[in-house]
Write a structure and sequence with these properties.
The protein is mainly α. It contains 22 helices and 6 strands.
Length: 564
């Protein structure tokens, strides 16, 4: 043993040093919430029609209404078609008025939008008609950025350290976030959003890992829960910010520029002592530990520091163990399905905030507000009803709400929004439950990481073991959710029917899983190994995979952070 666990106890579990560090994790969460959902407010629903100014060449004195009557066909309801127009002709105005136009074509000269509208992504880049799907595609590209960021910054934080990755990610998010406000083309916008998504992964997965590597096991759930609630607050602030700033470029600057203020992290963010020890940088680890003890007004026994030595790495279990043994194969398949459907329904509801019919700003405010009691209440639900029942029922409720929404008429926006908010509550609580339940179901050697509730906006991808494999599928679902929204062109109920039916299936599968609350956890894939006692609010398993067990009175911390 390296002795790092005993030294951290001497430093203090949650003194002023750790409290300050947890406070520093909160500010980036606000930016994460902004970038996750800001595009929803940049593509408003606006009436539009084809630009038919060609007729002005033969009829310069036509009124706007006369121009539209002559050049635009009408739909079944008598309204002007938004995506088609009569084909231009070389006739004089009298002939056009006398005989009318019959041949139609798609808009060839752009679109016309209501006057005095603030600039939006929709109006500047014409995200309507045959270009409408670019809105959902760009959301999927952002989600792909989250996935790529985990692939890049996860291993990078293990290689160069937590602190450098945090600073690099903050710089990239500020730079490309502000850069989005100046892009000339929508494809450049999507590329920049992908980079921002990658930086979001770098920030969320690394800064929370850093905090939990410093905080004592009994305080880790509280520390992580605070950051989750801050993410929810960020969603509510987004509603207010977007309400006050309707120009999409100014909104992007307002949400991204504050990241540059976080450059003071260069002087205040410490490196993880655990990571320094695993890399053999013992002297640096001693300095940062002594500084932390000084801030906490604690003293580390000199003899204890002298015992500090590099940790010996143990060989982890293989990913094949997840499928080689029958009981693990069942757990792996069902929990992978659970994470996938959790992510699908969460993003399915969150990214559809503009389609529920009620004011988008109030809906977003409600969506953010319900996540706070969902995250907090999840802890109590797990203790009162156990993991299996909580996970299954929350998934079933999420799916049921979405299925009910499909049957609500479009002229009932209040009912739809209330149901969607309820679904967001259950989906958020279900997502948090998945982290706890998964980390308790998988044996230590292949568990991989996290057991605390982590917001789906904070994806972290360990190597293909346990929770990491599930987390990877959750991110795939996040990429798919916006693309499923494209199915509305065939019927408005299809996406919500998918978001509802899939979690219902996942919830039923959860009843096949074993209960883990109050049950000793396995350390490896076989039987007969010393158990690890875990239950109370999942305090024994930290957000990034730290597990505190009992082994002859000695505490063991599994501290290695692993990623796909």
């Amino acid at each position: 043993m390296s002795g790092i666990g005993e030294i951290l106890k001497a430093v203090g579990d949650f003194g002023p040093f750790q409290k300050r560090l947890v406070l520093l994790t909160l500010f980036p969460c606000l930016g994460v919430a902004f970038h996750q959902f800001c595009q929803l407010f940049m593509v408003p629903h606006l009436p539009h029609h084809c630009d038919t100014s060609w007729i002005r060449a033969v009829g310069p004195n036509l009124t706007e209404e006369e121009q539209l009557n002559l050049t635009l066909p009408r739909d079944a309801d008598g309204a002007y078609e938004q995506c088609s127009m009569y084909s231009p002709v070389d006739w004089d105005l009298d002939s056009i008025v006398a005989y009318g136009l019959n041949a139609t074509e798609e808009c060839s000269s752009g679109w016309v939008y209501p006057a005095a509208q603030p600039p939006s992504l929709l109006t500047e880049f014409d995200l309507v008609c045959d270009r409408k799907e670019l809105n959902d595609i760009s959301q999927s590209i952002y989600m792909s950025g989250l996935f790529l960021g985990s692939l890049i910054f996860g291993p990078l934080s293990d290689r160069i350290g937590r602190r450098p990755v945090i600073l690099i990610s903050i710089f990239l998010q500020g730079l490309f976030g502000v850069g989005i406000a100046f892009v000339p083309h929508f494809y450049v916008y999507m590329a920049f959003r992908c980079v921002v998504g990658a930086s979001v992964s770098g920030i969320t997965m690394t800064i929370l890992s850093l905090a939990t590597e410093w905080v004592g096991a009994s305080y880790r759930p509280k520390a992580v829960l605070i950051s989750h609630c801050c993410f929810a607050i960020g969603q509510m602030l987004l509603a207010g910010l977007s309400y006050g700033i309707r120009n999409w470029r100014l909104l992007e600057i307002a949400g991204s520029a504050p990241m540059f203020a976080l450059f003071f992290y260069i002087w205040v963010i410490p490196e993880s002592a655990r990571w320094l020890v695993t890399k053999g940088r013992i002297e640096e680890a001693k300095k940062v530990l002594q500084k932390a003890a000084s801030i906490n007004k604690r003293t580390i026994p000199p003899g204890l520091l002298e015992q500090l030595k590099p940790e010996t790495k143990t060989k982890p279990g293989s990913v094949l163990d997840l499928f080689r043994k029958k009981h693990l194969r069942k757990v792996t398949l069902i929990m992978s399905c659970t994470w996938f459907v959790n992510s699908l329904v969460y993003y399915g509801l969150s990214l559809n905030v503009t389609n529920f019919g009620l004011d988008i700003y109030l809906t977003q405010l409600a969506f953010g507000a319900v996540e706070i009691p969902a995250r907090v209440g999840c802890i109590f639900l797990l203790q009162w009803f156990g993991r299996k029942k909580t996970q299954a029922v929350l998934l079933l409720l999420s799916g049921l709400v979405c299925l009910i929404i499909t049957g609500i008429p479009e002229d009932q926006p209040m009912v739809t929004t209330v149901l969607a908010t309820t679904g967001k509550f259950t989906a958020s609580a279900s997502f948090s439950t998945s982290y706890v339940y998964s980390a308790e179901l998988f044996p230590t050697v292949i568990r991989g990481c996290r057991a605390l509730p982590v917001p789906p906006t904070a994806p972290r991808f360990p190597r293909q073991t346990g929770v990491g494999l599930c987390s990877m599928l959750a991110r795939v679902a996040g990429i798919m959710a916006p693309l499923i929204g494209l199915l509305t062109q065939y019927h408005r109920a299809i996406p919500m029917a998918i978001f509802g039916s899939v979690p219902m299936v996942g919830g039923l599968f959860c009843f096949l899983l074993p209960e883990t609350c109050g049950v000793d956890l396995a350390d490896d894939t076989g039987d007969g190994c010393p158990p690890v006692e875990v239950c109370e609010n999942a305090n024994s398993v930290s957000e990034n995979g730290h597990m505190k067990g009992k082994d002859g009175g000695q505490d063991k911390d599994y501290t290695k952070t692993t990623y796909f």
